[in-house]
Design goal:
single chain; 309 residues; mainly alpha; 2 domains; 12 helices; 69% helix
C-alpha cells in the first residue's frame, strides 16, 4: 500500500492500539523485573563487598556472617521465582492464572468481548487496560494528523509511547526507570540531529541540560529548606527528555502546566480523597501531560502563559 496509508491517522490508530496493549505489559512488568534485578545486585554484589563495608563502617576485617546468610536467602528466593520478562510468561488472569487466548488478548476488542471479566473465573478486568490502549491509539492518530505521512511521525509516536509508559509506572510505583527516561533523551537529540523534530540540535542539548538542571535545583532547594526529598531524579531525567525533544523554549510552559494541574489534583486528593500530606504524589504523569500538550499545541500553549511572546 502507499506510504500515505501507513502513516494515515487510521493506520496509526490501529498501531497505537497494539502498542497500548504492549504498554500495559511494560507498566505492569518492567518495575517488577527491575526490582528483582536490584535485589539480586544487593545479594550478589553489595552484601559480598568487604571493601565497601569497611569504608562504610570504618572497621577492618571480614563481613558479618549475617550478610552472607541474607545474601544467600535473597538469591535463592529470587531464583525460585518463575521467570519474568516483558515477553514471558504469557498474559494471564491475576486472580486465577488463566492464560489469555489470542482473541482475549486483542487490543480493546478482547476486553469488550469479555465484557470486562475473565472468561475462566469471572473476576473483573481493570478498565485501565482498554483505556490505555484507546488513549495510545488516539494519540498515535493525532500524530498522523499533525505531522503527516512521513517517517518522522513514527519518532513522535515512539516518544509518546515512552511517555505513556512512564506516566503509568510513576503512577503505580513512583519510579521513573532509566530504561525509559534515557531513551527519551536520546530520541530527542537524535531527532534534532536529523532535523526530524523541528528543534535545532543546540536547542535540544540546552533543553536536556535545562530540564534536568531546573528540577534538580528546585529539589535541592526544597530539601535544604524542608529537610526531605520533594522530587526524584527520574523527574529530572523526564524533563530533560522533554527538553531534548521540544527544545528549551517550551520547558516553562510544560512545567507551569504540569505544576498547575498537579497542584489542583493534589489539593483535591487531600481535601476530598483522604490523601495524606506525607504520602508523595508522583509528578511524572503531570510532566507527561504537559509534554504531550506541548507536542500538539506548542506555540499556542506558550502564548497562554506568556501572551507577549
Amino acid at each position: 500500500m502507499a506510504p500515505d496509508f501507513w502513516f494515515s491517522p487510521l493506520a496509526l490508530a490501529l498501531l497505537g492500539l497494539c502498542v497500548g496493549s504492549f504498554l500495559n505489559v511494560v507498566a505492569y512488568r518492567l518495575p517488577k523485573v527491575l526490582e528483582r534485578q536490584w535485589w539480586l545486585d544487593v545479594a550478589q554484589s553489595q552484601l559480598g563487598d568487604a571493601e565497601a563495608w569497611q569504608r562504610v563502617s570504618g572497621h577492618k576485617g571480614s563481613l558479618p556472617a549475617a550478610f552472607g546468610q541474607s545474601a544467600k536467602t535473597i538469591a535463592d528466593t529470587l531464583e525460585a521465582l518463575p521467570p519474568l520478562s516483558l515477553s514471558r510468561p504469557r498474559s494471564r488472569c491475576p486472580h486465577c492464572g488463566h492464560v489469555l487466548r489470542w482473541h482475549e488478548n486483542l487490543p480493546l476488542l478482547g476486553w469488550l468481548r469479555l465484557k470486562g471479566r475473565c472468561s475462566a473465573c469471572g473476576a473483573a478486568i481493570s478498565g485501565r487496560y482498554p483505556l490505555v490502549e484507546l488513549a495510545t491509539g488516539v494519540l498515535f492518530a493525532a500524530c498522523g494528523w499533525k505531522f503527516g505521512a512521513q517517517a518522522q511521525t513514527l519518532l513522535w509516536c515512539a516518544a509518546i509511547a515512552l511517555m505513556v509508559a512512564m506516566a503509568l509506572i510513576d503512577l503505580d510505583t513512583t519510579y521513573l526507570p532509566d530504561d525509559l527516561t534515557l531513551p527519551l533523551i536520546g530520541l530527542g537529540l537524535l531527532g534534532a540531529g536529523l532535523g526530524w523534530t523541528g528543534t535545532r540540535l543546540e536547542d535540544a542539548a540546552w533543553g536536556a541540560f535545562a530540564g534536568y538542571g531546573a528540577l534538580w535545583l528546585l529539589a535541592f532547594s526544597y530539601k535544604k529548606i524542608r529537610g526531605v526529598d520533594g522530587m526524584g531524579e527520574g523527574d529530572f531525567k523526564l524533563l530533560a527528555g522533554l527538553g531534548a525533544l521540544l527544545g528549551w523554549q517550551l520547558l516553562p510552559s510544560i512545567v507551569l502546566l504540569a505544576s498547575a494541574v498537579g497542584a489542583a489534583v493534589g489539593i483535591g486528593l487531600i481535601a476530598f480523597g483522604g490523601h495524606k500530606r506525607e504520602v508523595p504524589i508522583p509528578f511524572g504523569p503531570y510532566l507527561v501531560g504537559g509534554g504531550i500538550a506541548a507536542i500538539f499545541f506548542g506555540q499556542p500553549l506558550t502564548r497562554l502563559w506568556f501572551p507577549t511572546l
